[in-house]
Amino acid sequence: MERGEVSAIGLIETARALVADDKGLLAMDESNPTCNKRFAALRIPETVEARRSYRELIVTTPDLGQCISGLILYDETIREGKKEGASFLKIIVNAGIIPGIKVDTGAKDMAGHHGEKITEGLDGLRERLIEYFKMGARFAKWRAVITIGPGIPSRGCIEANAQALARYAALCQETGLVPVVEPEVLMEGEHTLARCCEVTEEVLRTVFDELYAQRVMLEGMILKPNMVLPGLTCPQQEVVDVVADTTVKCLLRAVPAAVPGIAFLSGGQSGELASARLSAMNSRFRGHLPWAVAFSFARAIQQPALEVWKGQQANVQLAQKALYYRAKCNVAARRGNYPAAMEGE
Known about the structure:
There is one protein chain. This protein has about 350 residues and is of the alpha/beta class. It is built from 12 helices and 10 strands. Strands 8-7-6-3-2-1-10-9 form an 8-stranded parallel β-sheet. The chain has a two-stranded antiparallel ribbon with strand order 4-5. α10 links the parallel β9 and β10. α11 (about 300-310) runs antiparallel to α12 (about 315-335). The radius of gyration is 19 Å and the shape is globular.
């Protein structure tokens, strides 16, 4: 068997493992400024040690591997470990969880496109990916953000971000890492559900055009899209089943069947609402879709734990229980029986 065939098999196996057994991804890849901002809101010290302690709380949560298939780390996090003891990478692998890494360097203002962003980080990416693979990461993530507003998104913004996502994905697969491709249409704004659906479909079609152009193997990637939602300030907020139906219909029109899994981002939704919408998709369409419908949540799993912890060592066990509970809720959502399965807990 040729080396390329072996690499392809490894990518496909990892991609499938990330969406297997009703599990999903936990994103703990917040940049230091974002993490500090969330700490500040709860009056937690904005220090290196506080960040390390919080990340230790997450990766040492008992039985986390029963609900979480992959953990997305940040550059600082992948190099850290327990205050006294094993590295986070070793703890994650021993828990049966696949380690991943965020590799973009953030969304910046796009020249000539007022109100729009372009994600940077392609310079030197090949070398960084090689280093992360050697460290033990087996997948990576790159996030692009698309804003809906008067006159936007523009084709220029959509195409530039789609091309960057495709170039990143090709480099990942060259290195042996499964790319998690994240084109996020943001929730902020007054746009309707129909407008979000229109933009999301256009974005996804453009992304897959670029993935084809860059010869990305679709069987060896994961798509991390937004759910199709009305803007946060839109007067009409549709019920859960309407959101589920609209999201699935949009994805069926734009996402090839070769993709093994769709792991939704939460995008600022509450944990309960994100789980309810994911559950509705699985209860209404499970068994009728070409790809697994999973989750890749950050705040929607982490936030209750962060609020319980508050930077206090005495609260660690309670915070871990809160984290595990939200993770377990999303396993139920993948089975299409949230919140019924969680009643009484």
